[in-house]
Design a protein that fits this description.
Elements lengths: L7 H10 L8 E2 L6 H11 L11 E7 L1 H21 L4 H13 L2 E7 L9 H21 L3 E5 L7 H6 L7 E11 L22
Helix pairs in contact: 2-5, 3-4
The structure holds flavin mononucleotide.
């Protein structure tokens, strides 16, 4: 294969310009074409992966599928919170309504392949890189998107609902929508110099 003709200025621009945008910034009832979501997923599939285990997999909710997911997480919240005596109606409503404000919600799943004998850290890292590829693709399309790890992410019942085994992991949800405005969020980072130690000679 011939060496690709990459454009470093474009790469820097998209990596540094990528942003999270949250539900409050979503344009509701204006779905994104599935083709764009497929492009995001295709790019996710090109993440690096030790021993080629490709531990990422995804469940994409759109249309009435969003209602299915919203009802599932709201009802599960209700069941768990009622049992624990800490049910809050507003939280229940948020679980029921937030997915419907997105165009697509993508459940992020990590599936273990024990034949590869890899530490779990490596598989979580590979899935995270797949999510970064989705993030970059969404931002390049000017879309609003974020990775959320709230709600059912850490609930064992949700893991089961998604057909994941004990050693697999539900790693959260990637919410995607068209943005409600043209403005783009400012980035906030401490300088890289504070996080790097060089050893030269
Ligand atoms: C593993 C992971 C989990 C996250 N979970 C949440 C979350 O549960 N809720 C949320 O609002 N943002 C979540 N985020 C997004 C961060 O809030 C966001 O990346 C941060 O504010 C920096 O903004 P930026 O992505 O625009 O640079 C998560 C990000 C990562 C990498």
């Amino acid at each position: 294969m011939q060496k690709p003709d990459f454009n470093i200025e474009e790469v820097n621009k998209i990596i540094r310009g990528r942003r999270s945008m949250f539900v409050a910034q979503f344009k509701e009832n204006d779905p994104i074409d599935d083709a764009i979501i497929e492009e995001m997923l295709e790019n996710a599939n090109w993440a690096p992966t030790h021993k080629l285990t490709q531990p990422w997999s995804f469940t994409v909710f759109s249309g009435d599928g969003l209602v299915k997911f919203a009802d599932f997480q709201a009802n599960l919240y209700k069941e768990r919170a009622t049992k624990n005596g800490n049910f809050i109606e507003a939280t229940f409503q948020k679980f029921k309504e937030n997915p419907l404000k997105a165009s697509h919600v993508i459940a992020i799943k990590m599936k273990r392949d024990f034949r590869a004998n890899l530490p779990v850290m490596e598989e979580i890292a590979a899935v995270s890189m797949a999510v970064q590829n989705m993030y970059l693709t969404a931002s390049a399309h000017g879309l609003a998107a974020y990775w959320g790890t709230g709600g059912p992410t850490f609930w064992p019942e949700a893991k089961e609902w998604f057909g994941l085994g004990d050693e697999d992991m539900l790693m959260g949800f990637f919410y995607v929508a068209k943005p409600a405005t043209d403005s783009w969020p400012e980035g906030r980072r401490k300088p890289i110099e504070e996080k790097v130690e060089w050893v030269k000679g």
